[in-house]
Amino acid sequence: MVTRPAPQLRRSGCLSVARFEAMASPCEVLVDTPDADEARRVGRVVADEVARIERKFSRYRDDSVVAAIQAARGAAFEVDAETARLLDYGQELYALSAGAFDLTCGVLRRVWTFDGSDRVASEQEVDALKPLMGWSKVSWDGRRIRLPLGMQIDFGGIGKEYAADRALMRARRHSNSPILVNLGGDLCCSGPRRGGAAWQIGVDTEGQGEAGSMLLLQSGALATSGDANRYLLRDGVRYSHVLDARTGWPVEHAAHAVTVAAPSCIEAGSLATLALLNGAAAERFLALERVPHWVAR
Amino acid sequence: MKTLAACSVVLVVLGALSGCASLGVQPWQRDILARDEMSLGHDPVSAGLDDHIYFSKEASSGGRGFGGGGCGCN
Amino acid sequence: MQLKQRRIGARLRRASERVLEQRRSLDVDPALAIAGVMAAPAAMAAAQPGEWELNSAILFYSEADRVSAIEPVFQASRYFNNDRIFSAKLVVDALTGASANGAVPSQDFQTFTRPSGRGSFTVAPGEVPLDDTFRDTRLALSSSWAQPLAQNLRGSFGLNISKEYDYLSLGASSVLDWDFNKKNTTLTLGLGYAQDQVSPEGDIPTALAPQSYARGNSADEAESNYALQDGSDDAERAMRDSSESKSVIDLLLGVTQVIDRRSLLQVNYSLSLSDGYLTDPFKVVSVVDGSSGTPLSQIYENRPDSRAKHSVFVRGKRAIGDDDVLDLSYRYLFDDWGMTSHTVDMRYRWGLGEWFLQPHLRYYMQSATDFYQGFLIDGQPLPAEVSADYRLADMQALTAGIEVGRTAGPWGNWRVALEYYRQTPDEPGGKPGALAGLELTPAVDAVMVRFNYDFKL
Fold this sequence. Notes:
The complex is a heterotrimer.
Chain A: E1 8-12, E2 15-22, E3 25-32, H1 36-57, H2 65-71, E4 76-78, H3 81-96, H4 123-129, E5 139-140, E6 144-146, H5 159-172, E7 179-183, E8 186-189, E9 199-203, E10 213-225, E11 231-234, E12 237-240, E13 243-244, E14 249-250, E15 257-262, H6 265-277, H7 282-289, E16 293-296
Antiparallel strand pairs in A: 1-2, 2-3, 3-7, 4-6, 5-6, 7-8, 8-10, 9-10, 10-15, 11-12, 13-14, 15-16
Helix pairs in contact in A: 1-5, 5-6, 6-7
Chain B: H1 2-21, H2 44-57
Chain C: H1 7-20, E1 27-30, H2 32-35, E2 52-63, E3 68-80, E4 84-96, E5 99-100, E6 109-113, E7 120-123, E8 130-131, E9 136-150, E10 153-164, E11 167-180, E12 185-198, E13 210-211, E14 213-216, H3 219-222, E15 228-229, E16 244-260, E17 263-276, E18 284-288, E19 295-300, E20 306-320, E21 324-335, E22 340-352, E23 355-366, E24 376-377, E25 395-406, E26 413-425, E27 444-456
Parallel strand pairs in C: 18-24
Antiparallel strand pairs in C: 2-3, 2-27, 3-4, 4-9, 5-8, 6-7, 6-14, 7-15, 9-10, 10-11, 11-12, 12-16, 13-19, 16-17, 17-20, 18-19, 20-21, 21-22, 22-23, 23-25, 25-26, 26-27
């Protein structure tokens, strides 16, 4: 058991902010309460829940569910209920995106590193990985998963958003105060603040070339997909870090970042990811879905 | 040498101007400014009462903004 | 990527609810208004479309031996979609008590005609003549509509009416706020017009005409300071029209700048042009004997019929620490009546969790208007314009107060302020004879208590 530092608590008026690091992101929990002990308790519950999910679904740990599925080496592996729900969700996203989103495309990381350099993967490298990708090669019956040898499951695309939603649910069992959980920009709140006020959230739409916006969140969640600082540049062509699982190549004309508001963080994150996968048509996709959104290009 | 000195003065002035242009904050840095008590229009009812008192007791009035209607007290 | 649109949203919603085993709702609003620096009504950030925000207050104002006022205020603001706000405000102002009529004190009893011309009152030796029948109720109604006019441009339009027994004021105003530089800078342009009418009981007195005056020398009158007399027979009427009017044009140009994450700076230039009857029909000027200083008579005051007032107002606000706010302002004002004034105002809001404590200090100083004279000397030529109203004299004033309030908690958002206000006018110079030993413009002390309560519907 690794001991983690307790979340750092800062107070401003009635608002307490507990900060911690998890999932390679700065995280914070805002609790609208004058009671510092309560805020500290909520901060700890959230940090613990996020750590639990990170541990359970990490692709870097050999005691994670992901490692266990792989360790079955092609044999059927029965998963727990939570993992089953996430696999179902991944399967649904795969269907909704016609295969562009795929839980098995994590292997592409071996050839794509978006560090601002010009190291664009070669066609041979990408093609060599294709046999190791594709949800269609996975057998999943809702309880048992059979993952072909050499393939891997990667919950990276939905894990952080799921953790935000779950951590908030867990926190609400410990406190009736208004709470906002923010995991590196993917955030969700329990409802309006004390006295019915909304949470004020600034959205960085700088990539758009115009001033960003401020929004008021009374309930629901907000998630951002994309990262303007992660790309490759070669011969004047910009390769976004958004990979289409069907081709193994970056999506063309992808937005730098898409932020979406939705009832839950996982739904907001999925909509943002699907918008990015739509490339140049991201705005049209979001407009048709009629969701509040901010696109940075 | 003289030209160089003039140039550096111009650069300093331009620097100062762009310093002015960069006054302000990004939208996501408005957490503090967005607080109710940081608004210049905070508590307009009390401000109106104060303005009315001083309007009727002193020879000066106004300045802060637009107040309500006049009265026969001055 | 070709997706079958319209089916994604519903399927994704169901999938999200399954993975979380929970249903959630969304309520989000792009808040363009709060990103601007200018001032919309307070608590803008908190109020949502469809909500009413109600701000109420009651002020108790009391001067030692002089005027007392009770002033309740009720303001309701309704928020609509797209940052549109309707606001209406009602102010009642109930005044009672006595106020200085401008005449000098005397070593003898003095009797004055009431402003209405009906009845008279007597003032004891050495006392500053106060008209004790000062009693009026003012009712003021104002409403405004604010909305965005274009991207980064906000407009606000207001109408107001104020009615007293003998006074009516009708006004309209509009304010434009233009945000730019990522809403870090706001330019404000304001224009206002008001038309006022005064119809005092007993008509408008003729400027510089003598007011009836009698010397109290009977023992009966000496018994009380303010013995009422039925002196209407003696009252020499110096009345003219039944009403007079004036118009006021106000112009405001302002810049508000966000300095950094914690500070704001505002600079306003205001011009106020008044035209018409600017005289106070209830104020008189004593004519005194040049050697003895004995008041011989009073004449009605007369002020110029126009006034141009300029002011520059600078205000800074800065957040300090996690919960405190410093609010500092300075106003420089001058007019073509020869008056200049300086006002410094400082408030420090000290946040204590749900509570706050706010000390307040204000210092004001003005120079006298050109036509201010504490009294006139008998036999000297009468000036065209003269007023002995101490509010036009050289004066300093200090306000010190403290406000305490709670921003959350079981009784909502309330606050109480207690303030002490002291005016110290300078004594007029060259007081002849007995007048030299008397105080013409004593200090005025006032206490104010204000209670505010804000809530939402």
